[in-house]
Amino acid sequence: MSETLRGLYLLQPTLFIAGAAMLLLVVGAFSNGKRDLRLPALMTLLVAFLLQILSAEFSTPVTGFGGLIIRDGLSDYGAALLLVGLFVSLLLADPWFRREGILRFEWYPLVLLSGVGMLLLVSAHNFMTLYIGLELQSLALYVLATFHIRDLSSAESGVKYFILGSLASGILLFGISLVYGFSGTLDFSVLAHAIEGQEQSAVSGLIVGLTLVVIGLGFKLSAVPFHMWTPDVYEGAPTPVTALFAIVPKVAAVIILARLMLGEGAIISALGVDRVLWALSFLSMLWGALAALGQTQIKRLLAYSAIGNAGYALMGIVAGTEDGLAAMLVYMTIYLVTTAGVFAVVLSLRSDGQAIERLEDLKGFAQHHPLVAVLLGIFLFSLAGIPPLAGFFGKFYVFRAALESGEVILAITGALTSVVAAFYYLRLIRLMCFDSGSVPQERPIPAEYAGIMAVSGVLVLLFLLAPSAPVAFAQSAAASLFP
Amino acid sequence: MELFANPAPILTALAFWVLSGVLVGSALAVVLARAPVHSVLFLILCFFNAAGLFLLLGAEFLAMILVVVYVGAVAVLFLFVVMMLDMELVALREGFLRHLPLGALLALVLLAELILTAIGWHAAQDLRFVSATVATAVPFAEVGAEVSNIKMLGAVLYDDYFLLFQASGLVLLVAMIGAIVLTHRTRPGVRRQEIAEQVLRPAEARIHANNPPIGGGVDWDV
Questions:
Q1: Residue B92 contacts by C-beta under 8 Å, 6 or more apart in sequence?
Q2: Contact B164 A183 (CB under 8 A)
Q3: For the whole prediction, is pTM greater than 0.90?
């Protein structure tokens, strides 16, 4: 089979989504946006998920397009996670957008095209694929942040995201051009092989270049100190878009960092740039926990929670072992499930027809809506890492991997910041349960939200019963990087 | 010089001197012309001459791109902007002498950078340690005559980097959707031309045979 044909075969889920997105765009434009595209979009993601699973090749990595892309356990796991995340985001968005009356048909093609970018990113095996994937993803997300065009704060968040994101892309591209200038190749494994046995002086330019690449990716991951856009963008964007930001793009950024750090294309660790990742992880955990303490807005609080969680995920990568990678994948999976649950609750909060965005408005929530409050409590406890819930296991695996590879300081910081984080999640629960106030929430809660809350709740509660199944998946995915 | 190795050296040399002479002259004119519109027109002349120089070097793809992108898109855009803006010519000239030293300094820095790049190019080749991939890429000069560089670029772009070429297209598509999503507003009360409806309209709906009575009018309900 020729390289192009094999590449097309390997990328079939991604290409399917791209084709479907363009088709939806045409259908939407010709029907003047009157046709409901939700079901076709959801079906597209479902079919792509099945294609991805059925063509999954966990055992041996295969490259296509002359090494531009790679399919291995890591890319398959990442793609499956991304597709689930996109599916949930579409489900979450619909009732809210309809309620606010700002749903336009472009929402679906844009989400799908940003998904194409993310899928390219997780299967990138060349810096050019990395850049184009990242750009495709980001450009669609900039537009989505501004999706509510009549809302000033939405416009503000979009412009902020666009300008800072372009700056990050510029830094990333500058790093890539340095890497190319000093090495003559952009292929991950060729570069990794070339670095082996080189003297430190010969690779100094590469170190600078790669550090810039890591900074660019750190921005997309909202890792401290490149996180400054996150709270503002999360707060200003329409809440379903915030949910999308929180659930999906992080997975892609973390996985591409893992690919650069571990296994065959281990460029970051070969050059010693993993200390930069160490610092990003350390600072993210610390600042994510501390800065969240003073927040009064739900969305800002969740933004800092996302920043902190990026730190924990990075810890799994910094560990640099197969176990560390598997722990990171499990962590991201649990984080995705929990965040989806939290956002289902947040999106269903309404009083007097207005979406609730301040923490204070949650006072007395438990008296009025005991079941939803209990679920939110479960999700928050899980995010905080309280033992019997899924979040505890996620953090536990990451800490264990970090300790085993000798990253004691990082593990201790993680444990301490978890305690701080637990404090602000508990404060939220105290607000809901013990403070009096009224939340005249509208009933009934849309079926989508109820369903996602229920599924997330069950998964978070029952992870304890069968932790081996997801961990085994993650381990076989991680093992494909370490032949 | 490679230039003179071609079959008709005199003609090539003549073309080179004419093209570069006009290029330098028109470049000067861009800066010195009084009216901004003239500046832009001289800029276009500049681009055409530079494209001619690229042709002489055997880089016909660059020549075409220069004409298509710079003349076709960028310069025309400049022209639009210059024609639409109401500019005070005298105000533009003000401070020319004051800014001259800074401009000259910048020009010198740029010149120095160009010279450094030219000198450093060969040194940089030795710095790269992945010589294998560099060596597989055939240098322009060696292939030049047999395979046109458009063909080479096409092979690289549509075979090796097919995926990235298409993905770049998707990036542009997203940019276009984005621009429309952010700016498009449907206004009520806009009359549109429905061509299909016009064409499909039966003749009976258009032609009325009326027989108005003397002194009476016609009911006009179309």
A1: B36
A2: no
A3: no
